[in-house]
Amino acid sequence: MSSEQTLAHPTPVPTGVARPRPQSQLSIVWRGLRRDRFALLGGAIVLLALLCALLAPVLAPHDPLAQDAANRLQPIGTPGHVLGTDTNGRDILSRLIYGSRIALLVALAPVLFSGLLGLALGLLAGYYGGWVDGLIMRLADIMFAFPAILLAIAIVAALGPSQLNAIFALTIVFVPAFARLVRSQVLTLRTQDFVIAARALGVPTWRIITRHILINTLPICIVFATLQTGQMIIFASALSFLGLGVQPPTPDWGAMANEGRNAMLVAPWVTTIPGLAIFFVTMGFNLLGDGLRDALDPRMKL
What we know:
This protein is mostly helical and 302 residues long. Helix content is 69%, strand content 0%. The protein is elongated. The two termini are 41 Å apart.
């Protein structure tokens, strides 16, 4: 058969052959996470912490605020008190479970608020540039000049120690980090061909930002927020440890570690157990964040 006949009568495509179905972004991310054992371990730790926070009344064997002076500083493995009791005779396991609620609330709320505010500021600074970019970034530079934990301590000390003020302080402290990250992504995206083409076609600015730039910025923001949550848990616990965050007798891991300082020599578990909880949950968020970064990075699929 000649080439002219081949062009005139192309070979038909078999109808029985199934075409590959396009995969969603969630399925791609899940497939990437399943290959990373450390990411799965981090996800399991985070899920366990979330379940403890949601099911605290069901899982806690005792009232976390109930004091029993006769059973002060009971060791680990005591019948009825698996993880022992603290200096006031309160069950450590119950306080640890209820403390997961405070730890996740004081960590996730600032990440959410600072992420939204930083996202908005980063989009404005990166897309419009000029004096808008200069003003936002100079304010961020001023805040970066102070260590984050010291700035948070100063804000809470000025406003007064409380859980709400701790959330507000951590939100303010972490806004510049989100804003700078988003700005760097926007500066790269706004020079891409699809953004230039949309601008040339007369697409409204708000639509370019929301449909073209914001969508492509969200993956890196999600990864960064996951990593920042672990750091936020440490900062929130540090504020409570110093007496500037959640106030006693509310069960909080940082406050629990502080309450056991005077009994370290005779009952080290009172401080060690909440410290280990902070360590493992922080590690869980960090491992999950690393896994999300690899799963969402297209260069890791090459």
